[in-house]
Amino acid sequence: MKRFIAAIAAAGVLYSFAASAQTYPVKSIVMIVPFAAGGPTDIIARFVGDHMSRTLGQQVVIENVVGAGGTTGITRAATSPPDGYTIMMGHMGTHGAAPALYPGLKYDPTAVEAVGMAASTPILIVAKKDFPARDLKEFIAYAKANAGKINQAHAGIGAVSQITCALLNSQLGINPTAVPYSGTGPALNDLMSGQIDYMCDQIVNLVEQIKAGNIRAFGIASPARSPALPDVPTTIEGGLPEYQVQAWNAVFAPHGTPKDIVARLNDALGKALADDVTRNRLLGLGAVLPGKAEQTSEALAAFVKAEVARWNAALLKR
Amino acid sequence: MSDQTHSGRGGAKGVLRSSQDFAAGLFLIFIALFALYLGWKLPMGTLRSMGPGMLPISLAFMVGAGGAALVAMSLTTDGEKLTRWSVRGLFFIVASILVFAYTVQTMGLIVAGPASMLVAMMASEDIKWVEGIIFCVLMTVLCSLMFKTLLGLPIPINNLW
Amino acid sequence: MSDLLANLYLGFGVALSLKNLGLCFVGCMVGTLIGVLPGVGPIATIAMLLPITFGIDPTGALIMLAGIYYGAQYGGSTTSILVNIPGEATSVVTCLDGHQMARQGRAGVALGIAAIGSFFAGCVSTIFIAAIGVPLSKVAQLFGPAEYFSLMVMGLVFATVLARGSVLKAICMILLGLLFATVGTDLVTGQERLTLGIQDLSDGIDFAPMAMGMFGFAEIIKNLENVETRDVVQQKIGRLMPNLEEYKQSAWPIIRGTVVGGILGILPGNGAVLGPFASYTLEKKLAKDPSRFGKGAIEGVAGPESANNAGAQTAFIPLLTLGIPPNAVMALMVGAMTIHGIVPGPQVMTKNPELFWGMVASMWVGNAMLVIINLPLIGMWVSLLKVPYRLMFPAIGIFCCIGIYSINNSVNDVVSTAAFSIFGYALVKFGFEPAPMLLGFVLGKLMEEKLRQAMILSRGSFMTFVERPLSAALLAVALIMLIVAVLPSIRAKRDVVFVED
């Protein structure tokens, strides 16, 4: 079986060398998104994919392959022929925390070809309306004093909300009661009704509830405040500067994809991020876009290495 | 699933008064044991924080208990008899699904459609080959138009050439 | 009140624009088509159409996507009635009496009453959303994990009532469904359970392959056993529309179904799935002669179909007023709104009134369109039944295979359908019914999640279920229903033993 896969991979490499940079792409490119259609990662993939299609002259088709915290889809994409016709939208979980969470992981996030960073969405610490604290400092004090009493929600093992809150808890040295939900929606519902005390999640899922006053935000884990929520202080301002975490999304290609094809994809991605319409769409999600220096494949490869190490340290020690 | 076979109700002889219930009970006990075999290592946890094994293991016991109750009932209460399995239908229908599964991605609907339908047709005794083959071709065209052209689903139509 | 009229005026102004009418029509047509095709569901289709909506304004895009969603609910009943294949959990109930009616040559009547019931339910729930959607959305906040669990327990009691035969066998099937629902990754620990090491099972068993195998293919195999009985459907066609007597029989079930389905639809966490089951239970309990149910009782189609459609409409309430999607399709609608720069939340109504009211109005327009599209189609559907069975069953098979495959583009889904066909046929042979098992399966996942959440929140005390008043009330209803449901059937069972047929 292994030899068979190796043969297919080799055939794929040969094929892609035969039909490389000048002609690529000759058919539509499948971008595997390892999460359900309509979620933040999917929407980011659709925005950049839409513009990349125009640069590449071939349709970038989004295929949602859902399961096991995103690792099902990435496994399928990572084991596809490395010919540039199957690429993937990885994210903080699948290419950062997954090695720490899934011991039997069938791909190596640092071994797949890094194409480029797409967009990140900042993480917020939010609590129920009547949480007895006025700011992040009081929140931390209360959480530490009542760690046995308070409940924290998350959207399942491997979800952004689970990983990022695990990081927060480990930095605060607390071990609250974690209540798992199957998705952000139901978790948010119980946070709004007050059964849950706090959670962490991406800004796009929370922004409207915060504006409506249904929940309260104690800090945003990014270097600067978000234009979508200018009143929410950063964790640096709030006194927890070490809590800096973003749900990043980046494009990868299977291991062995020729360098010139990776370069073409990176170029198309860069053009998408430079396009005003695409930019505004992404900024509308509350996303943060990478600067020129962070857009290179090399920068992403180095970043992924750092992320894997970071999450290994944060998630395995507990 | 509608009309139960009405043969032999109440007419059973011997210890078994409903061979259908008896077999049904054994079937459930078998499933329960299989689930227990797969899941007995899962931690049960406590009521405060239930482990992954709590529900599967307790449900398996309940299913097993239900099976035991059916077996007991089959010895005391008259019921239906087990009827003969339609091996031909079962075999060809299941085969037709598998033929579809293993040809659609590699060769496309152009092969998977007719092949799967022809295998399915063999399940029936009154198969008419000429009519069947024409029907398969028409259906395959119709399906490609409907699923691919109209709905735009990413189903492979022709991967042969 | 004048506010409401002004808002509706605004909404209809938006919905009745030529472009939006067109998009609504396209949505309803596509929805009907994918609803009729077994397996192909609204999720795959809406995801497929998301890129197309880039070019349309958000209101138009959402009107079209919403049309696909309720059009699919609508079309699903056609397949359930004609060929006994439930495309979704909500149409399982329609199979029970709807397909029996078709076998008796009353397919047209069943389709007709389903269309009319759905239309009525759609109209009422649209008004519902417009008038009291906002206050109603508060109901969702009353439902914490404990309340949900109790609601699910109540739902399981419905399942015993669904059974036509032995109550013991129905209970066994529910338990089996619950057991099947535990397959997959554990939500709390991430550990794999009962998966046999198969990666596709790590997210649990999928509903569609299971339903298609146990209903569609098992039914085909069973029909093939017996050449004489299988063509029964073809020989009688009968009337295409219900007569006055049948309208009278169906009027109250439609009204009750609308209310029950509409209320359950508001609950986030897919309460809508309980609607048809609840309505069926209600009608069977209220009927003078409950034994007609499962043998082609028109109330068993009219009530659940109305509940189904009412729930499909009111499921928009938590989405539009709270920004919390109650099910996977609604989560996709959130995505569609986000793509267009509208983040769903409590402020959509004030910030984008033309979107909110336009969508509400378009639901009414869409329901009217669905009736107009579907009533003339009934004749066509019914005449499809004249196709000889030797050609019909391979056609059903290929539709199911393509449909299953297209859900995830997964070969393994098709293979698991084959496994469930064998399993389903075995169940038939052992005298089990698949409907209670499917309900147990659908509720099982949610039930375990809510049970464990409630126990974590209560720090391990079962008292939480009776201390919280709403939860206690739901459990009490469940208990009463169980007594009412089980006692007579135990007695009836005894009667059957003595009265030979």
Outline of this structure?
The complex is a heterotrimer of chains A (318), B (161) and C (501). Chain A is of the alpha/beta class. Chain A has helices at 2-18, 40-56, 71-78, 92-101, 136-145, 160-172, 184-192, 203-211, 235-238, 259-274, 276-284, 297-316, and strands at residues 29-33, 60-64, 86-91, 113-128, 151-154, 177-180, 198-202, 215-220, 246-253.
Describe the protein's architecture and organization.
The complex is a heterotrimer of chains A (318), B (161) and C (501). With 318 residues, chain A is an alpha/beta fold. Chain A folds into 2 domains: 188 residues, D-Maltodextrin-Binding Protein, domain 2; 117 residues, D-Maltodextrin-Binding Protein, domain 2 (3-Layer(aba) Sandwich). In chain A, strands 1, 2, 3, 4, 7, 8 and 9 form a 7-stranded mixed β-sheet that branches. Chain A has a two-stranded parallel sheet with strand order 5-6. In chain A, strand 5, helix 6 and strand 6 form a beta-alpha-beta unit. The radius of gyration of chain B is 24 Å and the shape is flat. In chain B, helix 1 runs antiparallel to helix 2, helix 3 packs antiparallel against helix 4 and helix 4 runs antiparallel to helix 5. Chain B contains 5 helices and no strands. Chain B starts with 18 loop residues before the first helix and ends in an 11-residue tail after the last helix. Chain B has 2 domains: 83 residues; 64 residues, no CATH class. Chain C is mostly helical. In chain C, strand 1 and strand 2 form a beta hairpin. In chain C, helix 7 packs across helix 13, helix 9 packs antiparallel against helix 21 and helix 12 packs across helix 13. Chain C is globular, with a radius of gyration of 22 Å.
